[in-house]
What does this fold into?
Amino acid sequence: MNYQSTRNHALTAVSTAAVLRGIASDGGLFILKDFSSLNFDWRAALEKDTLGMAEQILSALLPDYPNMGELVRRAYTGKFETEDLTPVVPVGDRYVLELFRGPTSAFKDVALSMLPQLITAARAGEGVEDEIVILTATSGDTGKAALEGFHDVEGTRIIVFFPENGVSSVQKAQMVTQAGKNVCVCGINGNFDDAQTGVKNTFAAVEAGDLLAGKGARLSSANSINIGRLAPQVVYYFKAYADLVKWGKCKVGDPVDFVVPTGNFGDILAGYFAKYMGLPVGRLVCASNANDVLTDFIHTGVYDRNRPFYKTVSPSMDILVSSNLERLLFLMSGCNDAVVAELMAKLKTEGVYRVDDAMVAKLQEEFWGGCCDDAATKETIGKVWKEHGYLCDTHTAVAWNVADQYLKDTDSKNPVVVLSTASAYKFPVAVLSALDVEAKGDEFAIMEQLHEITGVPVPKNLSGLQEKEVLHRDVIEKDEILDYVLRKISQPEWN
Ligand SMILES: *Cc1c(COP(=O)(O)O)cnc(C)c1O
It folds into this structure.
C-alpha cells in the first residue's frame, strides 16, 4: 500500500488501484507515502534512452505493474514525431523542451498516451470486470489528448467536458470530430473551473450515493488528479537533463532550472517529483498568465481564488483552482494529511487559505513565480521569432517571458530549460497577430497563413481538420454534469 490520500493517511491504495480510481474517496489526491523509500537510481536513469528512462521511472513510482517496459513500448512506439518523444532545442542561451511532438500537438500527449495502458493493465491486474468510464474536464488540450488515447480502447468509455466558449476553434474542432465507439464530447456553459468542479462533484456524488451500483461501470479520471497522468510527466525532466549533460552544458550533479507554463500545477509538480527522486533540479519557475493566483501564492503564502477570471490567449492556463497544488502542500507540510484537509476545507468554503511561515520559506526556496498578460505574451512571441527564428505558442511564450523576469530577479547561473507545451498552430490567431501580420479568414485559413509566413511545418493532425465531420454537438449547463454522466452510462451504445 504505497499510496494514500493527501487528506487521510488511512485511505491507502496500491499504485494500480490509485490509477484505476483516479481520486481518493474523501476527495483527496493519491500521493506516495514516502519518496525516500523508492527503489530508484537516478544516475542510472540518465544513461538510458527515453523509453528506458520511462520504464525505470514509472516502475519506481508505480511498482505494482509487472510489465512496465511492455506498456511503455505500446504507449509510445511510432506515436510521436521524434523517437526521443520530447526533443530539446537550444534557443539563444536557453533550452526549449518541446513537449508537443505527440499525436495531438500538446504536452498532454506524453501522459495521455501512457494512461490508457496503465488503466487497462490495472483493470486486468485488479480483476475488475466493470467498464471504466473516464471523466475528463478540459481547458482545451487534455480533452483531445485523452480522446486520442482512449478511443476504442477495450473496457473503457470516455466523456469529455469542455467550456463551450473557452477554447480555440482548432481545439474545439479537434475534439468534436473525434471518432470512436466509446467516446462522448460535451460543451458546458461555463469555464474550466466549472467543468472541473462538476466532474469532481460527480465523483463525490457517485461515491456517496453508490449511484453506479449494478450498472457494470465505474468512474476514473484522465485529469492530472490521476497519479497515472502525473507519473509519465516526470520522465521528460530526466530526458532534458540527460541531453544537457550529453552536450556538455552541465555535469551530472549541477543544478538546472526549469520554467513551466502552469495551470493545474501538474506539469511543474512532475518536476518536483523528479527532484524528490534525486534529479538535480535547481529552481522550478511557475509561469502564469493574467490568472496569477499561483504567482501571488508563491510570493505571499496566501492562495486566494476570489478574484476575476480572465480568458486569455493561453487558454489552457486559464485556471484559478490548481488541483495539484494539494499534492505540493502535502509534501511541503512534511506529509501532514490533517493540515492538507484543513486547507482544502478552507478553499472549498471561503475560497482562500494561508500556509504557515515555514512552508512559505520552503516554497520560495524551491519555486519562483511570475506572470504576464496577453500583450506581453504576444510581444514575447514576436521577439523570440525575430531574435532566434523560433516560433513558440502562447503558453510557451508566457514561460519565456517569466524566464526573463526570473533571470533578472535572481541572476541564476544555472542552465535554463523552458518547457514548451503546445504547437503554435493550436493557437494560430494569437500567434499570427503577435507577428504583426493582418489575419485573413477563419482560424484554419490563419493556420495556413502562419505556415506561409514562417515556413514552420503544420503538424499532420491539425491540417485538414476543418473538413472533418462534426460528430458531437451536446452542450449542457454546468450543474447538469452529474445527470448527463448517469444518463450516458445507462445508454449501451453511443456512436
Ligand atoms: C495543460 C496545459 C498547460 C498547463 O499544464 P498544467 O499541468 O495544468 O499546469 C500549459 N500549456 C498547455 C498548452 C497545456 O495544454
Remarks:
- The chain is about 45% helix and 15% strand.
- The first strand starts at residue 3 and ends at 5.
